[in-house]
């Protein structure tokens, strides 16, 4: 009964908003980790390679998904 109610209440707009929100969150995470890496690298002279790895990983996943969806669409 609960599953049926959820299927009736979830529509295309909800899924589109969820897609946009998670895309925006990924971009915000990549930008913030890049800025934090730049701060540690240029201001503190102590590079944090884990922050750079997170930023690169987010960019690679985002571009890979974009290329995959472009190729299969």
Strand content: under 5%
Order of helices and strands: HHH
- Which blocks of ≥5 consecutive residues have pLDDT under 50? none
Total beta strand runs: 0
Biggest sheet statistics: none
Backbone CA Rg? 18 Å
Structural class: mainly alpha
Tell me the helix content.
Answer: over 70%
Distance between the termini: 34 Å
Morphology call = elongated
Please count the helical segments.
Answer: 3
**Mean of the pLDDT scores?**
88
Layout of strands and helices, then pairs:
Elements: H1 2-9, H2 12-43, H3 49-72
Helix pairs in contact: 2-3
Kindly list the characteristics that best describe this protein:
single chain; 73 residues; mainly alpha; 3 helices
Give a structural overview.
Helix 2 (12-43) runs antiparallel to helix 3 (49-72). The chain is mainly α and 73 residues long. The mean pLDDT is 88. The protein is built from three helices and no strands.
Short description:
With 73 residues, this protein is an all-alpha fold. It has 3 helices and no strands.
């Amino acid at each position: 009964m609960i599953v049926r109610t959820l299927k009736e209440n979830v529509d295309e707009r909800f899924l589109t908003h969820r897609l946009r929100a998670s895309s925006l969150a990924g971009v915000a995470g990549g930008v913030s980790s890049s800025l934090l890496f730049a701060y540690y690298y240029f201001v503190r002279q102590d590079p944090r390679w884990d922050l750079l790895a997170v930023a690169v990983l987010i960019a690679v996943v985002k571009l890979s998904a974009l290329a995959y969806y472009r190729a299969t669409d």
